[in-house]
Amino acid sequence: MTDKFPSSTAAGNATADPASAALQAPALGRRMACWLYEGILLFAVAFFAGYLFSTLSQTRNALDNRHALQAFLFVVFGIYFTWFWSEGQTLAMKTWHIRVVDRAGKPLTQGRALLRYVLSWLWFLPPLVAIAPFHLSGGEIAVLMLGWVAVWALLSRLHPQQQFWHDALAGTRLVHWQPVQK
Fold first, then answer.
1. Is the distance from CB of 100 to CB of 82 less than 8 angstroms?
2. Using CA atoms, how far apart are residues 139 and 164, in angstroms rounded to an integer?
3. pTM
4. In what residue span(s) does the RDD domain sit (predicted)?
5. Domain coordinates of the chain in residue numbers?
6. What is the pLDDT of residues 21-59, one digit of tens each?
7. Over 35-79, what HEC string results?
8. Which of these, 105, 151, 145, lies nearest to 125 by C-alpha position?
9. Is residue 167 classed exposed, middle or buried when 0-12, 13-18 and 19+ CB atoms within 10 A define those classes?
10. For residue 11, what pLDDT band results from cuts at 50, 70 and 90?
């Protein structure tokens, strides 16, 4: 367990309080880079899950069973994130030296990881609900989605520990993590 979670020396912070140093949020730019990389990795997860779904359901047209596929992908992504977050980090988080922990700095339970997954949809649900009654072009939807993502990310600046608000609601936090060198 010594290499699983950050210590004040592993976090590289030289502050007076080692406990708070270990639980400092990584810089917003690094968290957003990790978020973007996670999206790229999720493309592969969605591709294989979609292939599995279409094979098992014998879907021949992409518009057939669209809502069932969306529900299936929601569940697959939930399993993916719940599994990896309860272990501490996804591949993208390992790359960017970020770990997710609870408020006390302990590993997430699967229940808390699932709650974080559900609350993380706050990145996307508000603009999706706002655009639902309108017939907008793909470009307009992209601008609204990217605008909301930027607003949601910048709102973390208002949190006392610079955490994203879905993390605050879920009782989790992102922290800097450096693997222990042997």
1. no
2. 27
3. 0.81
4. 26-171
5. 8-176
6. 567 889 999 999 999 999 999 999 999 999 999 999 998
7. HHHHHHHHHHHHHHHHHHHHHHHCCCCCCCCHHHHHHHHHHHHHH
8. 145
9. buried
10. very low
